[in-house]
Design a protein that fits this description.
523 residues; 2 strands; mainly alpha; 69% helix; two-stranded antiparallel sheet; 22 helices; single chain; globular
Length: 523
């Protein structure tokens, strides 16, 4: 993979500050926590909800998925070192990579779990999931070559808006729930993050703020549990006995699942498209923060690391994370992605990821993610003209629907119900939320782009983006009426909603074209 060709410079460069900076420790905790949490959530659901054998999940699925993170973060570290060498800068921050959160839940509840239920064979379900991930990886790798074209065509505010929406509404808000679940632990860790990272006031003894927040939160959590104010302390001896070595190697085991994937690809492929668009967004976000990476290389790394993970037994896809500005704000350089690659990779191989997750309270880790969300949102608004603020805010709306849908699905699952059990206005409202939420990254981008161009009085180009929205809604890429967000052909679905939405977008296109034909300067 080649980065953007530039004049070759020979700057003196010190590697140590890039790999061993104090800020890298803060950023390392943030990125590791995020990745580790995803893998542990996956394991808990597959074992406890879908009754997968623990050995299959912990020593096949998790190690394979961890290898994808290892490879992706390692390559992003190399890209960052190359950028630093080429520019002579010591403040280059590597692009973070990890497990993609939205597709994690979609793959668990839409592919892995249902495949187990349908076949009754957990090993075959694993191989079906491997095959799906391999195809997703190939799709993303091919889509990487379209990335620069999309980046050139879409306004910056439209690229950054969806990222800010996800950052504020998902990355920041959902961890806040964990903090309130264990307030003694969460609030002390949160005030450290707000004071020492956001407020830039040094933690005592120059201890990295993220480490200080984790240490205080961990101390308070274990003291409160000891005095009976929280959950019971974990059994460390039992957890240590469960650790097992498992080194994943690429194989063709996925071929046994290929004949079953056709019913799962309509769900999985939209998430590949979402990651491609999201990868373009985060590359633009990194550029706004001062680090200009080649979009094709960023996307291709995501695709190939997903492919490698699938070949090694992984069942989820990787994605470039949207936290680059936040990790840069923490002082992260190139080291934090290197150490994350080693920690997650070795953790998957030696089986200690589950142990770490059991020992570290979520409420102590959550404040780091809140900071990540706040920093990304702030960076978005600082990187665009003030006249485009409304377009960014407009692009938040589909992300709000995605947040509401996550919580509603959780409530229904807890009650042992599904959307089919809803009636009346409640059922109608739920269906409308599904429509807005499905494909929300892409619809956010299209909405934001259209409004930016309207503000700039480029109405024909705005009409083109809304016309694309009309086309995509016909096939469920955005606004799919199905709860799992699957794709479809419009002539194969009973619902009239895709056609109605396409027609509604079409009316907006006609109006904009009519207005573009007017000769008056003010509308």
């Amino acid at each position: 993979m080649k980065e953007t060709p530039t004049r070759k410079n020979q700057y003196p460069l010190s590697i140590r500050p890039l790999l061993f900076g104090q800020g890298d420790l803060n950023a390392f905790f943030g990125l590791v926590v995020d990745n580790m949490t995803q893998l542990v959530i996956m394991a808990a659901i597959l074992v406890n909800v879908f009754n997968f054998p623990r050995e299959l999940v912990y020593f096949k699925m998790i190690p394979g998925s961890a290898i994808g993170v290892f490879a992706g973060d390692l390559w992003y570290t190399i890209m960052a070192l190359r950028l630093a060498k080429r520019t002579g800068r010591q403040d280059v921050t590597a692009m973070p990579l990890g497990i993609d959160t939205p597709s994690l839940f979609a793959f668990i509840f839409g592919v892995i779990g249902p495949a187990h239920i349908a076949t009754g064979d957990p090993v075959l379900a694993w191989k079906i999931s491997m095959a799906v991930v391999v195809i997703v990886g190939l799709t993303k790798s091919l889509g990487a070559f379209l990335g620069p074209v999309i980046q050139e065509a879409v306004p910056r505010a439209a690229l950054l808006g969806p990222i800010a929406g996800v950052a504020l509404l998902l990355i920041s808000f959902l961890p806040l729930i964990k903090i309130f679940h264990e307030p003694l632990t969460g609030f002390i860790a949160l005030i450290v993050i707000l004071t020492c990272i956001v407020g830039k006031i040094s933690f005592p003894c120059r201890i990295p703020a993220a480490l200080g927040a984790l240490g205080l939160g961990l101390t308070v959590s274990y003291l409160s549990r000891f005095f009976g104010l929280g959950e019971a302390l974990p059994d460390l001896g039992q957890r240590l006995q469960e650790i097992e070595f498992a080194f994943p190697l690429p194989s063709f085991s996925f071929l046994e699942g290929l004949s079953y994937v056709s019913s799962y690809l309509p769900l999985a492929l939209p998430f590949a498209i979402v990651v491609i668009i999201g990868g373009i967004d985060v590359t633009e976000s990194a550029k706004a923060a001062g680090d200009e990476y080649d979009t094709r290389s960023i996307l291709l790394t995501s695709g190939l690391s997903t492919l490698l993970g699938g070949l090694c037994g992984g069942v989820v896809q990787t994605t470039p994370y949207i936290g680059h500005p936040a990790y840069k704000g923490m002082g992260g350089r190139c080291g934090y992605t290197l150490w994350t690659a080693l920690f997650i990779g070795l953790g998957g191989i030696f089986g200690f990821l589950g142990l770490m997750a059991d020992l570290l309270p979520e409420a102590a880790l959550a404040p780091i993610l809140i900071f990540v969300g706040l920093e990304i949102t702030a960076q978005t608004f600082s990187a665009i003209p003030s006249k485009h603020y409304q377009a960014v805010a407009f692009s938040f709306l589909p992300a709000i629907a995605a947040l509401v849908l996550i919580e509603l699905n959780g409530v229904l699952a807890n009650l042992g119900k599904t959307a089919a059990d809803l009636t009346g206005e409640t059922a109608t409202s739920f269906q409308m939320i599904v429509l807005i939420a499905n494909g929300f990254i892409i619809s956010s981008l299209l909405w934001g782009a259209a409004l930016v161009l309207i503000i700039d009085r480029r109405l024909k180009r705005a009409a083109a983006f809304l016309g694309l929205a009309a086309l995509l809604s016909l096939f469920g890429v955005i606004h799919s009426p199905f709860p799992d967000g699957q794709l479809f052909f419009p002539w194969h679905v009973e619902s009239t909603m895709p056609t109605l939405l396409a027609g509604a977008y079409g009316m907006m296109v006609i109006f904009l074209l009519f207005m573009a034909g007017q000769k008056t300067a003010e509308y």
